[in-house]
Specification:
The structure is a single chain. About 40% of the residues lie in helices and about 15% in strands. The chain has a seven-stranded mixed sheet with strand order 2-8-7-6-5-3-4, with helices on both faces. The two termini are about 30 Å apart. Bound molecules: pyridoxal-5'-phosphate (PLP). Pyridoxal-5'-phosphate (PLP) binds next to helix 3.
């Protein structure tokens, strides 16, 4: 079988072996419902509490500030919709034009219900500054939601300054940290966010599970009504195996963060050097402060779509735009938001390296791009 090189880690990551092993007993022998009073349910109940404490410790939160969800999309929907509806005197939301669709479409939904939303435009490097926010924020603003790191560009946002500006107007601050959690250090106290979304499958945990950090004191409406799980804020029998897998994966990624970052930065350099040595014309999008391993690269004269499919035939997985938009040949909303020249935008791919990638992988990727450009594009 042809060997596959997976370089789309911003779309999803490989489930960690240790996380997988840790999940198994909760799917098989320890299948009890954590809400039941008998002793068979004590194990799942304790495992949930331990997972909550472990996840909280990774971002310097308190355990009761972690609410389990089905992933980033649900966490974003919850934070945005419940904030908008929570205060009739402060109905406005501010977000940015290059958020993930989980945020943008939640905002579109509240707009349809009559809640005003303003969309800040990032700089051409993909950064929203506190000054940008200060120009739009008013005393009517209830929530500011700006992502911690952009999923197409990797650019990291000045969250601490943005949260400070939001708070100076009495607004809440939410960040979609789905791409950042487990990859760069996050201390919720230090950056001062009120809510933060995360998703396990982006940090080598299982799919379909995530969490929303909600700072103590922030009053959030319930997301799903029913049983009293998640203190009644999000009813539904817990995905115990998924939550355990998420906790193990996050702890591992956080304890090995420095090592992983160095590895990814070195692969990134290697890839860029190899492309340069082949005299390939390309430019990198985003700012100088970017998630390690995430590269948005534009190749003039070739379509990103063609590159993606040709790389796929060679066994290499990359992405054009964000994963959910891979079938769409339109320029992604992120590249439009940073006003990338159309010719470059159409020739853009995202290579997102992960901890499993090797130097040999990036050598193969660079060679493959060189060979494709030799046949279809400009060098
Ligand atoms: N937010 C960002 C920045 C993302 O990259 C993604 C996934 O691509 C999501 C939210 C959605 O997360 P999930 O797949 O867990 O619903």
């Amino acid at each position: 079988m042809k060997q596959m090189i997976y370089a789309d880690n911003a779309a999803t990551t490989k489930l960690d072996d240790e996380a997988f092993e840790a999940m198994l007993p909760w799917l098989r022998e320890n299948y009890g419902n954590a809400s039941q009073p008998y002793s068979f349910s004590r194990g799942p109940k304790k495992a949930l509490a331990d997972a909550r404490a472990s996840i909280a410790a990774c971002i310097n939160a308190d355990p009761e500030e972690i609410l389990f969800t089905s992933g980033g999309t649900e966490s974003d929907n919850w934070a945005i919709k419940s904030s908008a509806f929570s205060d009739p005197d402060h109905r406005a939301t501010i977000t940015s034009a290059f958020e993930h669709h989980a945020v943008l479409r939640s905002c579109a939904a509240i707009e349809r219900m009559g809640y005003p939303v303003a969309y800040l435009r990032p700089s051409t490097e993909g950064v929203i500054t506190a000054n940008n926010l200060a120009e739009s924020i008013t005393q009517q603003t209830r929530l500011v939601s700006i992502m911690l790191a952009n999923n197409e560009l990797g650019s990291i946002q000045p969250i601490k300054a943005l949260a400070k500006t939001a708070h100076s107007y009495g607004a809440l601050f939410h960040t979609d940290a789905v791409q950042a959690v487990g990859h760069i250090e996050i201390n919720v106290r230090e950056i001062g966010v009120d809510m933060l979304s995360a998703s396990a499958h982006k940090f080598n945990g299982p799919k379909g599970v995530g969490f929303l950090f909600v700072r103590k004191g922030v009053e959030l409406a319930s997301y799903a009504d029913g049983g009293s799980q998640e203190r009644g804020y999000r009813a539904g029998t817990e995905n115990i195996a998924g939550i355990i897998g998420m906790a193990v994966a996050l702890k591992l990624n956080c304890s090995e963060m420095k090592k992983n970052q160095e590895h990814l930065l070195s692969l990134e350099r290697e890839l860029l050097d190899r492309l340069k040595h082949k005299n390939i014309a390309f430019s990198r999008n985003g700012s100088s402060n970017t998630l390690p391993g995430v590269l948005s690269l534009s190749f003039p004269g070739v379509s990103g779509e063609t590159l993606l499919h040709r790389l796929d035939l060679m066994g290499i997985c990359v992405s054009t735009g964000s994963a959910c938009d891979s079938k769409n040949t339109e320029i992604s909303h992120v590249l439009k938001a940073i006003k990338l020249d159309e010719k470059l935008a159409l020739g853009t791919i995202r290579i997102s390296l992960g901890r499993e990638n090797t130097e040999a992988d990036v050598a193969v990727i660079a060679d493959a791009i060189g060979r494709i450009l030799d046949t279809v594009g400009e060098k």
